[in-house]
UniProtKB/TrEMBL annotation:
Protein name (database record): Diaminopimelate epimerase
Keyword Membrane: no
Family of the protein in this entry: Belongs to the diaminopimelate epimerase family.
PROSITE patterns listed in its UniProt record: DAP_EPIMERASE (PS01326)
Main subcellular location: cytoplasm
Higher taxonomy: Bacteria, Pseudomonadati, Myxococcota, Polyangia, Polyangiales
Single GO cellular component term: cytosol
Keywords associated with the record: Amino-acid biosynthesis, Cytoplasm, Isomerase, Lysine biosynthesis
Active-site residue numbers: C71, C216
Domain of life: Bacteria
């Protein structure tokens, strides 16, 4: 029997159990049980954080126990946690992730907290996504379950496929099918976007390892990048991405530049549990 101290955070309803330490502290089974919404705490994933050799870090394990390279909403929560706990000096610092360092700025600590993240530069190169296509997939034709739709494949450090023309009625079955498409060898987060003018869109994301979520930060960035790449939105101008859990503000920089994401992060409660659950 082992005690575990944890914190519950959420960003637009994308919710996480945050643990100070490294991912080796918990087994895959522990993570799955902790994230179970009926028999555990309930979360879309577990985030591990702390400061190692003077550098803040975050690692991400999805609710099904799989590892993710990056999590946008999670990074806002971790940034808030590091400031609340006094583990960093000031409110502007870098956090190391499996997708590289990301600069964060905690704008507001009191609820509802607000954090700006300089996300890494997106890549559409198939080897980066990764995806088995000969060239970047930009509004490329896809077929799934008899439906013809168009998709753009984007890496935000983790893999995303964004479509703007999937019929609403087909979304629930297309999400899991596209996620398991063998052209995405590491699976893919699938975003279903609808433009609302050039500066706004609605987005639903079927995430790797946690299914349909209230919000996905990297998914919102990938959708904004896809909108810019396909001429639906403009570079350098804020794009409001409205997810089921609420809006994120995304700005896509010039090609090769980073994407800026700004949104809320909230501490929900602190807890202690005894493992194994
Ligand atoms: N919800 C996250 C993304 C979490 C990781 C994702 N499920 C994956 O496996 O890539 C976000 O806010 O970005």
């Amino acid at each position: 029997m082992r005690p575990l101290l944890f914190e519950k955070y959420e960003g637009l309803g994308n919710d996480f159990v945050v643990v100070e330490g490294t991912s080796s502290m918990l087994s895959t089974d522990d993570v799955m049980r902790i994230c179970d919404r009926h028999r555990g705490i309930g979360a879309d994933g577990v985030l591990f954080t702390g400061v190692s050799a003077g550098r803040p870090f975050m690692s991400v394990i999805n609710a099904d126990g799989s590892t993710a390279e990056m999590c946008g909403n999670g990074l806002r929560c971790v940034a808030l946690h590091l400031v609340r706990r006094g583990l960093v000096d000031g409110r502007t610092f870098d956090v190391d992730t499996d997708a590289g360092p990301h600069a964060v700025r905690v704008l507001e600590v009191a609820a509802p907290g607000r954090v700006e993240v300089s996300m890494r530069a997106p890549s559409l190169a198939p080897r980066d996504v990764p995806a088995r296509f000969d060239a970047p997939l930009i509004d490329g034709e896809l077929r799934a379950d008899g439906v013809v739709l168009h998709g753009t494949a984007v890496s935000m450090g983790n893999p995303h496929l964004v479509t703007f023309d999937a019929p609403d009625a087909a979304r629930l079955r297309l999400g899991p099918m596209l996620q398991d498409d063998r052209r995405f060898p590491e699976k893919v987060n699938v975003g279903f976007a609808t433009m609302k003018g050039r500066g706004a869109m609605q987005l639903h994301v079927y995430e790797r390892g946690s299914g349909w979520t209230q919000a996905c930060g990297t998914g919102a960035c990938a959708a904004a990048v896809a909108a810019v790449e396909t001429g639906r939105a403009s570079r350098g101008a804020p794009i409001e991405v409205v997810l089921p859990g609420g809006p994120l503000e995304i700005v896509v920089g010039e090609a090769g530049e980073r994407v800026r994401m700004t949104g809320p992060a909230r501490h929900v409660f602190s807890g202690r549990l005894t493992l194994p659950l």
